Amino acid sequence: MLISIVVPCYNEEDVIGRFHDQVRDVADDLLPLGHDMEFVYVDDGSRDRTLAALQHLADLDSRVRYVSFSRNFGKEAALLAGLRHASGDCVVVMDADLQHPPELIKRMVDLHAQGHDQVIARRTRSGDRFTRTLTARLYYRLINRLVDVELVDGVGDFRLLSRRVVDAVLALTEYNRFSKGLFAWVGFPSTTFEYENAVRAHGRSSWTFRSLLNYGLDGLLSFNNRPLRAAVYLGMGLLLCAGLYTVWIVAAALVHGVDTPGYVTIITAVTALAGVQMIMLGVIGEYTGRIYYEVKGRPHFLVKATNVERTEGRAPRGTRKDLIP
Length: 325
Ligand code: UDP
Ligand code: MG
What we know:
Layout: E1 2-9, H1 13-30, E2 36-43, H2 50-60, E3 64-69, H3 75-85, E4 90-93, H4 104-113, E5 118-123, H5 130-146, E6 155-162, H6 163-171, H7 179-186, E7 190-195, H8 209-221, H9 226-256, H10 263-296, E8 303-306
Parallel strand pairs: 1-2, 1-4, 2-3, 5-7
Antiparallel strand pairs: 3-8, 4-6, 5-6
Helix pairs in contact: 1-2, 9-10
The chain binds uridine-5'-diphosphate and magnesium ion.
């Protein structure tokens, strides 16, 4: 069996060598069991010397393939490129920063051999800041109410995918990609195991509060139009409140006569309604924006340098019998 390791790298020159040493050790352990390995590194337009480091690795190790983007297209695009260029019978997706311990690959391969198409590593949140843990908890509560697929806290992109899962994911050509959701959407027999979260080996996480917030919104909006539905319900609720209030205020005027001081009420109502309308417009705008990007049909990424010929659509080694239709 050929195992492809897909690794998105953005400014990882300091760890990439160490990362490769560790996965190579794992590859050496798996070789006697009849498993070959290839490494697909995707340089996501790094500003440092990541590309040079990858080229160096490719010179030393013929199993290394790299794809380098013309600019930073984001991790989702890097992941897609990695999957497209992987030719293995199964693919392990992992981060370059050693937060995903390479030794776990063996366990994943074992579980895959037991018939699971997706083997998902779920990290425990120990060592995370309390606020991050809390926001993550709340977010997953919310998103699982709104979204069709089940998203689990701590489950990220660190997972093994069988060839048919990879092909299914590649068949989803949408521009706005939310991999966590796409993996959950394709389904197939899956299993999850837990691992201890390691701290980043070097450099710093490229996630800021803002990018996390945007990522969260992407997840909410990528799967269905339930937020639009929520906006409709909110509007109906407000209309009901306004109606009740009108009845009350008209009745009061009829009984007590008109009392002019209503300034506070008016201002409060106007600002509240304006806020709600803004949010609804924003939600609609988000969907329209997504349609706009889909319609343009631009490529997800542009390649600047690579040592692989285009493998998209190339038959993987092994049979293609079990592929989706
Ligand atoms: N990454 C990428 N493009 C980006 C940002 C990150 O390819 O624009 C890669 C990065 O090199 C790493 C992985 O995605 O291998 C996860 O990134 P990071 O460690 O910053 O995220 P975290 O682990 O904090 O979720
Ligand atoms: Mg990381």
